[in-house]
Design brief:
alpha+beta, Nucleoside Triphosphate Pyrophosphohydrolase, nine-stranded mixed β-sheet, 25% helix
Amino acid sequence: MVTMVSRIGRELQRYDQGQRQVVGCIPYRFKTGSKNNKLEDELEVLVISAQRKGKGMLFPKGGLESDETIKEVALRESVEEAGVYGTVEGVLGKWCFKSKGNDGYYDGYMFPLLVKEQLDFWPEKDIRQRFWVSVAKAKEVCQYSWMKEALDLLVIRLESSSL
């Protein structure tokens, strides 16, 4: 069941050695009817607008909370922020990065999410836009270098699994 309200507050937020734990996902799908054999030409990823205007595009992400598994957070964030539901696959990696909004450091985990359903209504529909884009376009517009690295790892994983 999909909740239509975003979680708020940080009472359940997890920290590790003072660093906030965040989890994100790269929602992806394959173009239908594509006859091209090159994976990057067949693959589309979903980027969303940042909450604050003028802050660029990114993949869905949010805080890891004590009452959820890491994969549950990845799925929750994809539903809340991007309005997509699907299969959360194996972790792509963990990155340590400095917050753009404050002086804190975060640990970020990224997962691929194979999209099975795109919702017409989702909790953050009124504050975010979503766009299906090519891998090249996602690398161009994504504001976080660690998310771009995760995207590279996703492409490598998908290429190796298709061989």
